[in-house]
Structure formats: C-alpha cells, structure tokens
C-alpha cells in the first residue's frame, strides 16, 4: 500500500526540504520505491536531489495546470528506486491559475491516483506557506510530517498549521493524520538546546519522533553538490540521524503512531 506523506511548515528554514530529500534517499536505500514530488516553486528539493530546475522540460506545473499525466513528468535520479517530479519557479503562477478550477484542492490528488500505485512512498515537499499548493498536498496525503527547529520559538505558528490540517481533514481529506514532528538543527553542545527539546516534547500537541536531527555542516553542504547526505557524507552525524529517522518511519508501517485529527 502506498504511503503519501506531506512535509509542511509555513515557517521557512526549519529543515523541511532537507528532511524530505534525505528520508527519500534512505527509504530508497531500504529497497522502497519512492517518488519525491517538489511542490515548492523555489525548487530546492529538485536541485538538492541533483536535477537542475532549468533543465527539466516538464514539471509539477504541467501536471497541475496543463493536466499532463504525472508519469510523463517523472525524472530519474542518481539513486535507484528514487524518482522525482521536479519543480521550477513558474510553479508560483499555479496558485493564481488554479483559483478558477473546479475542485482546485483535489488537482494533485487526482494526478497521483494512477501514478502513486507504482511506489511504496510518495513524499510531497510543500512550500513554506499555507497556500493552495500546500492545501493540494495535504488533500492528497495520508500523513503530515512537520519539521520543527530546536529553538524557543519553535512552536510559534504550529497552532495555525495544525488548524489548517484539521480543516483539511474535516473538509477535504478525512484520512489525513499528523504523522509527527521532527526536531531539527539540534546543537547538543549546549544545555539550552536540550531544555528546548524537553519543552517541545512536553508541550507539543502531536507525536514527536525520537530522533534528533543535529546541526551539521555536511547537511548544509550536500544540497550545493546535488546530493543527499547518504552519498555526500554517509558517516556524518547528520547521515546517521536521518538513517535513524528513516527506521522510525519504517516501523510505523507495522505500528502506526500518527495522530488522527479529532
């Protein structure tokens, strides 16, 4: 059965794309068939995985606006088992062009209906906003993973995101769950960081993954080389963290821990 997961947080710079790309790579290494869908006009996931957005002839824009079959825009990546639906800056125009469409919140879900069956996981990297592209991803997904930076203002804005997820659950996608929060950019050298983690675990309104993603220079460097951390620096702390997070996610296949919306 295909699991469709959206990576969402309207706050930028929290490691959302980094988490989506590296989980995709480690899931593929675990012999899972993975489709990474870049729903962000900034196309960071596309370039992170080694595809130049300027060289991609077709992308998600063509699927959403021109109704091109999703299978025709899929790009292969350097990793066996990991495919990509690329993005490009012109996707920003889709938010406006989709406004007049019938059932505009369901465009991506309908596009995935035929293509998703060929994959074990479909990962949707959302833009840092709660606009129509993110709503489409939430409507298509079965679960949401929310990366949260390890800082005192980490939970700021989370209530708004959860309210949006709840609204999508009630109005558009009854199957949607909050899969969990991922704590990113953890600096284990400071007591403050651990205090923040403890506060988040205590007060977070959803399940929190056990794995902490550390601040790591290699994780920051990998996108500029068009590689996931798995191939760029496989023995780095960042790589070990994302491998552990992947194992947590895989365990949810047999013991789901996502929180169903009320």
What is the topology?
Blueprint (H helix, E strand, L loop, with lengths): L2 E5 L8 H14 L4 E5 L5 H5 L11 H7 L8 E2 L5 E4 L8 H4 L9 H9 L5 E5 L6 H9 L2 E7 L8 H14 L5 E10 L4 H13 L4 E7 L2 H5 L7 H4 L4 H15 L7 E2 L2
Parallel strand pairs: 1-5, 1-6, 2-4, 2-5, 6-7, 7-8
Antiparallel strand pairs: 3-4, 7-9
Helix pairs in contact: 1-11, 5-6
Under the CATH scheme, which class?
A: Alpha Beta
Q: Per DSSP, what share of the residues sits in E-state strands of 2 or more residues?
A: 15-25%
Structural class: alpha/beta
What CATH calls the topology is Rossmann fold
Give the % helix.
Answer: 25-40%
Domain unit count: 1
Please provide the count of β strands. 9
Report the total helices: 11
Instruction: Kindly report how far apart the N and C termini lie.
Output: 24 Å
Overall average pLDDT: 92
Biggest sheet overview: 9 strands, mixed
Which superfamily, in CATH terms, is the homologous superfamily? P-loop containing nucleotide triphosphate hydrolases
Taking Cα atoms only, what radius of gyration do you get, to the nearest Å? 17 Å
- List low-pLDDT spans: none
* Spatial shape: globular
The assigned CATH architecture is 3-Layer(aba) Sandwich
Q: Encode the helix/strand succession as letters.
A: EHEHHEEHHEHEHEHEHHHE
List keywords for this structure.
Rossmann fold; 9 strands
What does this structure look like?
Helix 8 (191-203) links the parallel strand 7 and strand 8 (208-214). This protein has helices at residues 16-29, 44-48, 60-66, 94-97, 107-115, 132-140, 158-171, 191-203, 217-221, 229-232, 237-251, and strands at 3-7, 34-38, 75-76, 82-85, 121-125, 143-149, 177-186, 208-214, 259-260. The longest helix is centred in the last third of the chain and has 15 residues, at 237-251. The chain has a single domain (3-260), classed as 3-Layer(aba) Sandwich (Rossmann fold), CATH 3.40.50.300. Strands 1, 2, 3, 4, 5, 6, 7, 8 and 9 form a nine-stranded mixed sheet that branches. The mean pLDDT is 92. It is 38% helix and 18% strand. It is built from eleven helices and nine strands. The chain is α/β, with parallel strands linked by helices and 262 residues long. Helix 1 crosses helix 11 and helix 5 (107-115) packs across helix 6.
């Amino acid at each position: 059965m295909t699991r469709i997961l959206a990576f969402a947080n309207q706050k930028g710079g929290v490691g959302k794309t980094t988490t989506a790309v590296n989980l995709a790579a480690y899931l593929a290494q675990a012999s899972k068939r993975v489709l990474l869908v870049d729903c962000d006009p900034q196309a960071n996931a596309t370039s992170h995985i080694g595809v130049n957005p300027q060289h991609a002839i077709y992308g998600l824009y063509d699927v959403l606006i021109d109704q091109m079959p999703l299978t025709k825009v899929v790009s292969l990546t350097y990793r066996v088992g990991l495919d990509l639906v690329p993005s490009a800056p012109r996707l920003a125009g889709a938010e406006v062009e989709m406004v007049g469409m019938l059932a505009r919140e369901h465009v991506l879900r309908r596009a995935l209906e035929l293509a998703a069956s060929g994959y074990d996981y479909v990962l949707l990297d959302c833009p840092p906003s709660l606009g129509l592209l993110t709503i489409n991803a939430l409507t298509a997904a079965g679960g949401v993973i929310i990366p949260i930076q390890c800082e005192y203002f980490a939970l700021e804005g989370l209530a708004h995101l959860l309210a949006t997820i709840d609204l999508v659950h009630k109005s558009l996608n009854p199957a949607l769950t909050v899969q969990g929060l991922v704590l990113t950019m953890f600096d284990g050298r400071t007591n403050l960081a651990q205090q923040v983690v403890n506060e988040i675990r205590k007060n977070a309104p959803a399940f929190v993954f056990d794995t902490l993603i550390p601040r790591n220079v290699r994780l920051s460097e990998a996108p500029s080389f068009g590689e996931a951390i798995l191939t760029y620096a496989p023995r780095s702390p960042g790589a070990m963290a994302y491998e552990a997070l992947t194992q947590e996610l895989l365990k949810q296949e047999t013991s789901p821990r996502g929180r169903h919306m009320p």
